[in-house]
Amino acid sequence: MGDFWGRSVRVVAGAAVLALALAACQRSAAEKPKAAAPPAPAAPAVQQKPDAAAVWRKWGLKPMVPAPAPPADKPLKLPKKGPAKVFESVPTKDRVVFVTLDDGQEKDLRFVEMMNDLKVPVTMFLTKDDVQDDYGYFTPLQALGNRIQDHTVTHPVLPALDLEGQKQEICGDRDALTEQYGTAPTLLRPPFGRWNSLTQEAARECGISGIVMWRASMQIHDFQYDDPKKELHPGDILLAHFRGPEQLKGETMTRMFADLLKQIEKRGFAVGRLEDYISVQ
Ligand SMILES: [Zn+2]
Question: The CATH number of the domain where 89 resides is what?
Answer without folding.
Answer: 3.20.20.370
